[in-house]
Amino acid sequence: MAAMTTKGSGPAQRVAGNSRFAGGLVVALACQLLAAITANAGTLSGKVRLAGTPPPHHKIIMTADPVCDSLYPKGREDEMVVADNSGGLANVLVYVKSGLPEKYRAPAPIGVVHIDQKGCEYVPHVIGVRVGQDIEIGNEDATLHNVNTKAVLNEPFNKAMAGKGQVLNTAFQHAEVAVKLKCDIHPWMAAYVGVFANPFFAVTGADGSFTINDVPKGDKYTVEAWHETLGTQTATIAIDEKSPANLQFTFAGN
User: Fold this and answer.
1) For the chain, how are helix, strand and coil distributed in percent, rounded to 5?
2) Which of 29, 119, 159, 242 is the one with CA 20 to 30 A from 179?
């Protein structure tokens, strides 16, 4: 575009100049809007713990598929309940369930979310996406997988992925917590995708912690923590721009 109007003072140059001005104005307005939003928003963080003794892990034996078995000849532990020594519980979806201001409008989702079938397991095991967000599911294994979605509110699908390097692109069109992905060929393979209408969600890390930034100021949010086998817990909390809000969830172990 610049090459067309590098020199001279014809109409094209004026158009280019007006375009740059308009572009700068848009950026300035966007920055002002973002500043206004963040000025009236706060951070929600916390930790999810498992009380008591974690249930024992089941060892997955993969002799049914020589490719998988060669990767884990001694088997691999399942990922249903993953807790560290302090009880921090990983792979929990934490999200704002209700309480957003009536005037709040969620921005369009940005970017592509990646899920891999790698080592005959889904990586990551739990993930959150936005409604309509592009999802790319890859097969990094030199063996056949299939992606069978157990969706309730979204349209389920079951797609074979013949071998290494194949990619499946999809998106979910309705909020749902959570859509299960499974492989019928390797029945130990499962993953969960939380689909959300707004960007205020997180998945707990290895220590059970989570952080959700830029939550609009509100007096009574309902926040839910979801785990694939331990169920759900909810809490209410107020959020403002003055100090971070903190929530602690505890699920019962054995």
Assistant:
1) 15, 40, 45
2) 119
- Which single residue is written with the structure tokens 């003055």? 242
Query: Cα(76)–Cα(59) distance, rounded to whole angstroms?
Result: 5
Position 131: which residue type?
A: V
User: In this structure, are residues 59 and 80 in contact, taking their beta carbons and an 8 Å threshold?
Assistant: no
Give the chain's length: 254
Q: Is the dihedral of CA 17, 23, 29, 35 positive or negative?
A: negative
Q: What pTM was computed for the model?
A: 0.84
pLDDT digits (tens, 9 = 90+) for 128-183: 999 999 999 999 999 999 999 999 999 999 999 998 999 999 999 999 999 999 99
Q: Whole-angstrom Cα distance, residue 229 to residue 249?
A: 15
Pairing of strands 135-139, 41-51: unpaired
> What's CA 248's distance to the chain center, in Å?
20
Burial class (CB in 10 A: 0-12, 13-18, 19+), 250: middle
| Beta strands 190-196; 126-130: pairing state | parallel
Phi, psi of 18 (to 5 degrees): -65, -35
